[in-house]
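Batch job 17 of 40 flagged for manual review because the log was empty.
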Amino acid sequence: PVIARREKLVAGLKEQKLVYAAALEGKDHRVERHKWISNQQGERVSVKTHRTVRAWFFAQDEGWYVQCRYGARVIAADGTNNAVFVNSLKEVEPVLDLFIAAASAGELDAVIAQATKRKRVAK
């Protein structure tokens, strides 16, 4: 399970590099997916649709923040902070490369394990 989580995070970070390349061009990165819908005759058919991938980096405070996510959860990259601040969009790619290297080396395994734990909700 540890290796599967690590590979999932690395795959997400590699996809974010594609989102970054599209952001440099001023475009959205879209992924093709298959969706089952009912047509007018009531038959279930597979239809190709496109989904926009959300970026893990955003502009704020006259710079860019880069987050590392596991699924929908933001993980703390250094243990306390959940984002890395850079001055320009061109500096986002080296941060993504650092995240990929850290995840591949297993440095983020404990943080990923903590992010996957379910928290109890008080009723």
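Reviewer: the log was empty due to a logging misconfiguration, but the result itself is present. Helices lie at 2-24, 92-105, 109-116. Unflagging and moving on to job 18.
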